[in-house]
Amino acid sequence: MNQLSIFLENKPGELTQLTQILSDAKVSIDSIMIAETSSFGVVRLITKDYERAMNELKSAGFSVRVIKVIGVLMQNEVGAFHKIVELLSKNSININYCYSFYSGDNKGVFVFSVDKVELAKELLEKVEFHLVEYV
Predict the structure, then answer these.
(1) What is the pLDDT of residues 50-75, one digit of tens each?
(2) pLDDT, tens digit, for every residue of 69-111?
(3) Cα–Cα distance measured from residue 9 to residue 13, given in angstroms and rounded to the nearest whole number
(4) CA distance 103 to 110
(5) CB 71 within 8 A of CB 1
(6) How would DSSP label each residue in the chain?
(7) Torsion angle, CA of 70/116/44/47, rounded to 10 degrees?
(8) Rounded Cα distance, 42 and 34, in Å
(9) How many CB atoms lie within 10 A of CB 115?
(10) For 128, left (φ over 0), alpha (ψ -120 to 50), or beta?
(11) Is the sign of the CA dihedral 87, 91, 92, 96 positive or negative?
(12) Could you tell me which residues come within 8 angstroms of residue 67 by beta carbon, excluding any fewer than 6 positions away?
């Protein structure tokens, strides 16, 4: 799965400008997470149309990077998240960050940034976790 990481100055109106550009380009945001410091913020965004979003944002002067992340669809049940992090940990895969979004039907998608993407995907698929891929 491709995630856009967009750097914003930490001031009023920056996020509004970003979302206006995506809205005008008819890009739907599936998930968004914002991390901030005192001077800048990083918007982590998942969309099915990441290339169009990236091009529109870059054209408007935003600093945008595409990051390979793993999306895992899982049932909302006790211990489900633990199974994933335990599997990754046992195989010496470091989780840089993680966030989630609701996907309906009592399920969620957990998005993982890890240091060994391909190995993590292979391991998760072997134990029959459902990986979410946007093309």
Answers:
(1) 999 999 999 999 999 999 999 999 88
(2) 999 998 888 998 999 999 999 999 999 999 988 777 888 899 9
(3) 10
(4) 10
(5) yes
(6) -EEEEEEEESSTTHHHHHHHHHHHTTPPPSEEEEEE-SSEEEEEEE-TTHHHHHHHHHHTT-EEEEEE-EEEEEES-TTHHHHHHHHHHHTTPPEEEEEEEEEETTEEEEEEEES-HHHHHHHHHHTT-EEE---
(7) -30
(8) 6
(9) 12
(10) left
(11) negative
(12) 2, 3, 4, 5, 44, 113
**Both tokens of residue 84?**
């994933």
In this structure, what token pair is assigned to residue 110? 């957990």
**Tokens standing for residue 53:** 């979003």
Reading the block at residue 2, the tokens are 């491709």
